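Methods — Computational structure assignment.
A single polypeptide chain was analysed. Its primary sequence is given first, followed by the predicted tertiary structure written as structure tokens.
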Amino acid sequence: MGSRKRRAPGRRERTVPDWDGPSPASSAAEIISGAVDALVTGRGGGGVDLASALLADTEDPARARDAEQALAAALREAAGAVWARGWQPAEAVRRLGRLLGPAAAAAGAHAAAADLERHSCATVDPVWAAQVRSLGAPADPLAHLADAHGLLRFEAVEQVLRTLAALRALPPLQRLMDPPGSHRPGRTRPARTRTEVDRGKLARVRALLAKAESTEFPEEAEALSARAQELMARHSIDRALLEADEEGTSEAGYARRLPVDAPYDDSKAVLLHEVAEANHCRAVWHRELETCTVMGFPDDVDAVDLLFTSLLVQAEAAMRAGSSVRDRSGRRAGKDFRSSFMSAFAVRVGERLTEAARSVRDAVQAEAGRDLVPLFAAREQEVEKAVEQVFGALTYERMRGPYSEDGWNAGRAAADAASLGSRRRVTDR
């Protein structure tokens, strides 16, 4: 006997009818709007195919031109709406690539570039403009999708429609940067200008980490990464001492979102958390969006970004080398080995980074004859306050334990041979 779904009394279930497609007299803008609505609500049916065919039709040159212009306008408008919800260009393009593939990412890059062209340079954050330029946006999305991705015109149009639907469905994020048209350099306290000393130290850190990533010798990688962390820790202390007596708005709320990609995203989030904690920052994990927001003082956030990126390269190289071996049962190391490897690597790196930062702090205290603990405690309280203001209440998630003892041991060994930072829970948005 078949089962029936229970329904609350007095309520009627509503069903949304499928969209059968546009009428022949519909304008290009109406066709696009209807197709995107259908995709977002999941009632596309065969209507989206019909819409794509109508928009891709080139028999009437004037109608084809109108369709191209309407698609370009829709992409621009979609980009502006996404920026209003807190997304940045690189984040949105990366998300499109993860959801729909490289063709959608290319369409998203075009949308970001087209939106940027609408605004005066004076109203655009230079960091935003540089981010858009780095995407390498195509001038003509349909032609690019056909040439670079081998799509027929009909398929390219459908890809743009699906990109528009994906952009509309992106959830709100915390705004970390003014979108184009709203940036006013003098409206808020300007970001501290980097000195030549700052730039020189960052260049030295980058060079050390690049060598650590490229060397085949674990001991050398360890020494180079350790030296990079020491430089960053000392620079953070120097900056903290320099700014201790300055008045003005705190920069503890400076934030940057960093990608945390699968596989092993939970272990990578732990790794980022450990690097952030060791450098006086906090990391908030948005699991469903495969990203972490790192918040702290600007130089410390820079240090976290540099070190985390380098450690990922080192960890993945070591994991590839380690997973080529066989476990004690003679089987080739598999998913459990790799997952346990990344988890152990993150924990051990956290321990070593904390040790290195403490060592530098103790050395500077001895040199300066000044207790730095109260200074950094106050700065960390400022960071915690900024995190609470932006995110409110947060939940905490414990990571699952390792399934492979061999992978765990190999991961700790790789961390000993790579770099430095205490096992703590990952803050989960």
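Note: The chain is about 60% helix and 5% strand.
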